[in-house]
Amino acid sequence: MNTRLSRTRQDLADFLRRKRASVQPEEVGLSRSSRRRTPGLRREEVATVAGIGLSWYTWLEQGRDIRVSAHLLDSVARALRMSSEERQHLYLLAQERPPSAPADTWCEMPPLIRVLLDDLTQRPAFVMNLRWDVIGWNAAGDGLFAFSDYPKDKRNMLWMYFADKRLSCRVQDWPRQAAQIVSSFRRDYAAGHHPSDMQDLADHLQTASHTFRRLWRDHDVQGRCEGRRSFEMPDRGKVAFDHTTLIIDQDRHLRLVYYVAVEGSPADTLSIRRSAIDLASE
């Protein structure tokens, strides 16, 4: 047996036994017998509350080499009243991967991240969720993308790129950039668990944009969306930016997208902000 897998299964066994011992019968709607000697729950009680077979739970807790589904792990996590952090730990031990992203996408800006954005005064930056809704930005980011010009329900990077030509018409080499953007979103779409809101967005974009519809149906999946992107700026011509995406909250799937003007590019932060805002108001 692989040494790492053997160690992981032992860790899984220890973790489940400790969690089982920490949950009281009353917490899951069971009565406490006066003759109970086992601290916490019995294995058969966990299986009953989880709605799974006793043999399957026993094998799982013993760390046996069995294949378990996400449904079974979620049932065990609920029965043992696991927190989101404990559920993620369970998945990592049992399947060596984190659980799928939740269906609902986070739409609130954490206060500390708001401070971080405000501190980034020299470079365009914004925060988006798994659905690519933009939930926060700094002044330079608003200058480049004019987020404040969009209503909240349209403040989504995919919608802005594909359903509103004010942004895409400024992007140089748009066909290549469009393909990269859609393939990157494909990765996030697959990461979601029953992503009804993401499916609704994709459906609407296929109706609104022939380009998006064609690229979406290609099912092309590449790496994350980063690299170099150039924008046409009034009175400045083409301005090139290097951009990257940083995970700032893994559990809520929030990412900080950060743009840096390429050295020697004909623009500084102030002129980028002014030019982009003027363009958005035309």
Highlighted features:
2 domains, 434 Repressor (Amino-terminal Domain), Beta-Lactamase, 282 residues, alpha+beta, 5 strands, disordered C terminus, elongated, 13% strand
Strand order of the largest sheet: 2-1-5-4-3
- The CATH topology of the largest domain: Beta-Lactamase
End-to-end separation: 67 Å
**Helix-strand string:** HHHHHHEEHHHHHHEEEH
Tally of separate helices = 13
The whole-number mean of residue pLDDT values reads 85
The assigned structural class equals: alpha+beta
Low-confidence stretches: 1-5, 274-282
Task: Choose one word for the global shape.
Answer: elongated
CATH architecture of the largest domain, by name, is 2-Layer Sandwich
What does this structure look like?
It is a single chain. With 282 residues, the protein is of the alpha+beta class. It folds into 2 domains: 3-95, lambda repressor-like DNA-binding domains (434 Repressor (Amino-terminal Domain), Orthogonal Bundle), CATH 1.10.260.40; 111-280, Beta-Lactamase (2-Layer Sandwich). The chain has 13 helices and 5 strands. The chain has helices at 3-22, 43-50, 54-61, 70-79, 84-95, 111-119, 139-145, 157-162, 165-168, 174-191, 196-208, 210-218, 269-280; strands at residues 125-128, 134-137, 227-233, 237-249, 254-261. It is elongated and about 85 Å long. Mean pLDDT is 85; it is low at 1-5 and 274-282.
